Amino acid sequence: MRISTSLMYGRGLSTMGSQQSDLLHLFQQVGSGRRIITPADDPLGAAKSINLRQTDAVNARYGANRDIAAQNLGLEDNALDSVMRTLQDVKTRLVEAGNGTYSDAERRTLADVLRHAYEDLFTQANATDGNGQYLFSGYTGDTPAYVKDGAGAAVWNGSTGDRNVQVDQTRRMSTSDIGLDIFGRATPGSSAYLTSAADGNTGNGIIKSPSISDVNGANVGNNFEITFSGDASDPANPLVYEVAVTDSDGNPVETQGPFPYVDGSAIDMGGVQVLIEGDPLAGDTFTVETAQSADMNVFDTLDSLIATLEQPADGDPQAMAEVVNKLASAMQKIDINHDNVLTVRASVGARLNEIEALDANGEMRGLSYKDQVSKLEDVDYYQAISSLQLRQMALQAATSAFQSIQVTTSLFSSGRR
Q: How much is the pTM?
């Protein structure tokens, strides 16, 4: 086999180029700290690394979503705290208004105080997250939850859809609550009863707070309407009452009575008991209904209460009875509204706790993903530096060999001449 000078030169240059290329690759690994410079270095490892980085990026996105959810829930908790304080103050004012020694002027002063409480609740119901999104308006965050109609009454303006955020791979979480569920309903599952007196009552009968005398009573969960007839001053036609029982949908169940009315005696309607005092007249009606069936809109309650407190009642037993009944009904409703806000706030706290737990798990997963990527991509400096030294020695050897070939070739050329 004949070896030409150009072949020897080509082989020598190729060897040095290969050694230089390998040396440069090692320099890149040591300089960047990465074992995989190109996918060709480890195709399987590169594919695994890409998948892990994508998974880690998704995990980081969930973490960012949790930050947003925690911020919104924190703002909601602050708003609900203000609502609770306002409702507590309203309850205090209602107790004051029930003072029998108060005059019309003093009740009007309390009406002004309650009007300010009304405006405060209206403001909190339209609280925002700082970015113009209303907290309690459902998924239509760009519209206020409540607006005032032409008569100045607060009416619902939001939507009933939740704003959910994906906070983990298998968990979507509501980052706010709907205003109707806070300001316009009773606590889900509440078995409380509410009383009210009809606006057209002409007597001075006063209905007290109801109670459940027997949880297994036949009519527990139903609604009742107590209607009076007769005349207490006419022995031939005494004052009596009948109880119309309806279910939660308003369908008739039964009619009880008529029964003779005894001032201060308990009326048991089949597991639900109520007390009526005073002197009701024929045609007077009192209602006992479940909190789930009643209108629990706190704004309507305050509107009605303010109007009642502004009406003159001094020296008028019938008007005073109306004030007392309206105050009692309002107190019962505000109590339930307050409990409902407590329930919603507890739910907010539970979601915040869940976010903290998900954050802890997300951080652990993120560390695990980064550790796996590091094992796949990070260079082993001990091995890389050892290889670097070997490559440098190999390059020096290849260079020396090439130089020797050059000298030998030159000598042979001189001899031929």
A: 0.78
pLDDT tens-digit map of 89-141: 999 888 888 777 788 898 899 999 999 999 999 999 999 987 888 999 988 88
Contact 345, 81 (CB under 8 A): yes
At CB < 8 A and 24+ separation, what contacts does 165-174 make?
165/65, 165/68, 165/69, 166/62, 166/65, 167/62, 167/65, 167/66, 167/69, 167/355, 167/358, 168/62, 168/66, 168/358, 168/361, 168/362, 169/58, 169/62, 171/358, 173/69, 173/351, 173/354, 173/355, 174/351
**Structural domains present in the chain:** 34-191+299-378 (1.20.1330.10), 193-290 (no CATH)
Rounded Cα gap, residues 353 and 229, in angstroms: 57
Q: Name the burial class of residue 64, with classes exposed (0-12), middle (13-18) and buried (19+) by CB atoms within 10 angstroms of its CB.
A: exposed
> Which H, E and C letters describe the chain, residue by residue?
CCCCHHHHHHHHHHHHHHHHHHHHHHHHHHHHCECCCCHHHCHHHHHHHHHHHHHHHHHHHHHHHHHHHHHHHHHHHHHHHHHHHHHHHHHHHHHHHCCCCCCHHHHHHHHHHHHHHHHHHHHHHCCECCCCCECCCCCCCCCCCEEECCCCCEEECCCCCCCEEEEECCEEEECCCCHHHHHCCCCCCCCCEEEEECCCCCCCCEECCCEECCCCCCCCCCEEEEEEECCCCCCCCCCEEEEEEECCCCCEEEEEEEEECCCCCEEECCCEEEEEECCCCCCCEEEEEECCCCCCCHHHHHHHHHHHHCCCCCCCHHHHHHHHHHHHHHHHHHHHHHHHHHHHHHHHHHHHHHHHHHHHHHHHHHHHHHHHHHHHHECCHHHHHHHHHHHHHHHHHHHHHHHHHHHHHHHHHHHHC
Tell me the pLDDT tens digit for each residue of 376-400: 666 655 565 666 566 666 656 656 6
What are the CA-CA distances from residue 207 to residues 103, 272, 381 (Å)?
A: 22, 14, 86
Tokens standing for 354? 């869940």
